[in-house]
Amino acid sequence: MTDYQNPNLVVHPGKVRSGKITWRSPSNIALIKYWGKYGNQLPRNPSISFTLDAAYTETILEYGSKVSDKPGVSVDFMFHREHNLQFSNKIERFLTSLLPIFPFLSQIDLTIFSSNSFPHSAGIASSASAMSALALCLCSLEDELFGTLSDDAEFEQKASYIARLGSGSACRSIFSKAALWGETPDVKASSNLYATGWGHHLHPIFTTFHDDILIISKDEKSVSSTAGHKLMENNPYAETRYMTVDTRLKRLISALKSGDVERFGAIVEQEAFGLHGLMMLSEPPYLLMQPSTVAAIQRLMSWRSSTKIPLYFTLDAGPNLHLLYPDESASKVAAFIRSELLPFCVEGSFIPDRVGNGPRQL
Ligand code: DP6
Fold first, then answer.
1. Is the CB of 25 under 6 A from ligand 1?
2. How far separated are the first and last CA of the chain, in Å rounded?
3. Which of 24, 76, 132, 333 would you call most buried, defined as having the most Cβ atoms within 10 angstroms of its Cβ?
4. For the chain, what is the radius of gyration of the CA atoms?
């Protein structure tokens, strides 16, 4: 089993050149959701996602010889060029947990600058883009110091593994277009430890897909994703979920490969309702959809049935609606969003996005 622990990755004190590494890494939208985890960030079920494009985090990692003799990790973290103590403490704890994998992190001084392309308070989870960008910077740093990750496939796998430890869904952001994470009998190379790129399996129609995010609420969620994963542990319907999800994934994989957009839409919407159904059946139960989420879904469904235009939705663990559709329908969908869906959004805000090519080193 890969655990990447490597006590040999240490530098000669005082011999580290200073340098700077920058990665831009996107968010992703799960089509089959990761919901429930065990052990050290291992998923209870497999998930598959589209990699996004416009919603990304840009992370700059500056490093140099350690000046202080303070033991452990020395990191200064800036979010949008400002000190943020809460994020800083979280990053320091995360880097400390990575010392068995990257022992050199206690031998250098780090300054990390991170910023998102989307507004912080838009109710969009930034952990996938942020943790994947940081993981990519750390793997590049390892490669710069030791030359150990020159093979692209090995680099991506390790970056995905590290991203997973930061936030489960982040491990899927490493790959172009689509990624699959979690063991499933139908995909031989699947692993709980890291995601694998799945973009090359997509029928071309899906590579043109848009994912426009309707911002229904900017409020902080009443139940965080972390608490939501935890509540799956004693959810009486969890076992049924985990017994049936492989079949749903198998059917989705077949639709994604064959280009069956209608079947794709039916499965993805069932999965989104399934995720929120699990929340409503949890002990205690909770509800993250807002009245406007439901109203927008109903409007979308009736417009689809009258126009026959393939517009579908999915939801993350929150009230915002992700609209999925092929590029060939873009102008008609744009007119529909403007006239009928924007009234459900806070301050009419929505973030247009689409399937993207994955992270980029800048
Ligand atoms: C509903 O990846 O945010 O978005 O591993 O605790 O950081 P942690 O959870 P996180 O959970 C994402 C849940 C989801 C579904 C998904 O992206 O697969």
1. no
2. 32
3. 132
4. 21
| Ligand 1 site, residue 43, Cβ cutoff 6 A | no
CA nearest neighbour of 105 among 134, 63, 162: 63
pLDDT digits 0-9 by tens, 135-192: 999 999 999 999 999 999 999 999 999 999 999 999 999 999 999 999 999 898 999 9
Residues 313 and 297 sit within 8 Å (Cβ to Cβ)? yes
Give me ligand 1 centre to Cα 316, in Å. Answer: 8
CB of 30 closer than 6 angstroms to any ligand 1 atom: yes
User: Per the omega criterion (within 30 degrees of 0), is the bond before 284 cis?
Assistant: yes
Q: What is the torsion angle, in degrees rounded to the nearest 10, for the CA atoms of residue 329, residue 335, residue 336 and residue 342? A: 130
> Could you tell which of 225, 252, 271 is best to mutate to test the pocket of ligand 1, judged by most ligand atoms within 8 Å of the CB?
225
